[in-house]
Amino acid sequence: MSRALEFFFDYGSPYSYLANSRLDGIAARFGIDIRYRPMLLGGVFKATGNQSPMMEPIEAKRSYGGLALRRSAASYGVTFAANPHFPINTLVLMRTAVAAQQDDVFDAFHRVVYPAFWVQGLDLGDPAVLTQLLDENDLDGDRLLRLGAADPAKSALRANTDEAVARGAFGAPTVFFEDEMYFGADHLFFLEAALRKGASVDDSGD
Fold it and tell me: What is the pTM of this model?
């Protein structure tokens, strides 16, 4: 297998949305692939005892977290709007993402879902809304949701989630590169530093 960034994500994580906006550029600059690993963030939280920042009990800290998110989006040059339906149960959505991978339509699915969630503010926890979104973008929503409800997709999502936890993940986004973990969109800076260092070492051997 070629060298790759493993991107464990849940569409319901706004920082995963921000990280996703940068990963293509990072991968292209360093000539590496991205392996998209859909996981269920709620399952990660349950397994690790972690919780969403939205559940932060200190109101001032919770409010500042929202400000930090908006600042981060602005600094990345990413269009972002808080989803009015948040938090959303993403179980069906993430199973459908795995189904899209298994059906070889993930690239098109992925391009559609993030802006629908974090720009348009759609309630993608509602299967009817998700089906309509996919149909409007030349994806067969009924088929993908049926595949997502079948055992292969359900088992694969569970396996991804369990693997992420076993490797040390406690939230999203979590990126692994050569067994090193990078948590959070802000830590992509450290990932890029590691990749630059690796590129320098490779260049020195020419």
Answer: 0.92
Q: List per-residue pLDDT tens for the chain, 206 residues long.
A: 458 999 999 999 999 999 999 999 999 999 999 999 999 999 999 999 998 777 778 889 888 888 999 999 999 999 999 999 999 999 999 999 999 999 999 999 999 999 999 999 999 999 999 999 999 999 999 999 999 999 999 999 999 999 999 999 999 999 999 989 999 999 999 999 999 987 654 554 44
Q: Nearest Cα to 34, choosing from 8, 2, 5, 10?
A: 5
- Give the count of domains, the chain: 1
Output the six-digit token pair for 97: 């993402």
Name the nearest CA neighbour of 24 among 110, 100, 101. 110
Question: CB–CB of 15/175 below 8 Å?
Answer: no
CATH of the domain at 66: 3.40.30.10
Report how far apart, in Å, the C-alpha atoms of 80 and of each of 18, 72, 115, 174 are.
Answer: 9, 10, 8, 20
Strand order in the sheet with 180-183: 33-38, 4-9, 174-177, 180-183
* Domain containing residue 14: 4-204
Q: Is the peptide bond before 115 cis (omega within 30 degrees of 0)?
A: no
DSSP code of residue 80: -
